[in-house]
Amino acid sequence: MLHREARALAIRRIEESARTETDFANVLYWWDKLDTNRERKERDHETGRSAVPPEWGAYKLYLSDSPSYDMILRRLMLAGDFLDIIFDHPETVHELVTDVDLSKILKELKPHLQNMLYYLFLRDYSITEYAESIGQSDRNIRGIRETALKKIRKLYGGILTYRKKNSLPMTLDEKFSLIMACGRKRKPNRQKHRM
After folding, report:
1. For a surface tag, which of 54, 94, 111, 134 has the fewest beta carbons within 10 Å of its beta carbon?
2. How many domains are there within the chain?
3. Residue 92: which domain range?
């Protein structure tokens, strides 16, 4: 009999023999312990792009406080996770997002906006670098970026509002985004009164 099977039988016996409040507290303790262990195992198997330590097989010139996107892709490739590398193109940027609704919003953007978001946010180009690469002014790129972000925020804000109204599960980041979006809408326009 495996250790895991023996533990499952022992916990089942504890559950079935629980009669008093302290016995049930002991059952809850074991359930919490099993849940914590299960969640830890799930976290260990998830791919976290921002949580990759640069010391894991990085070249010396890549050692920095913030690992570059290329270094993270290289690490994922060495681990055998090729999906991010396959979809590492501006036209497939929507495939890199786990939220279905946000992925749909990004997919429906115009190609030049997908291209801009890819290079500014994933490849970490500065606005000046990106503007020079496509032959436009950085002022124009700033305006296009703000317009694209407003459009994404508006569409995604509607989705988040729908989720909240229908009591659908939301992550902490989604709740924070919704609060920030509501805060922007509620700010009154302050007009200067002339005397």
Report:
1. 111
2. 1
3. 66-186
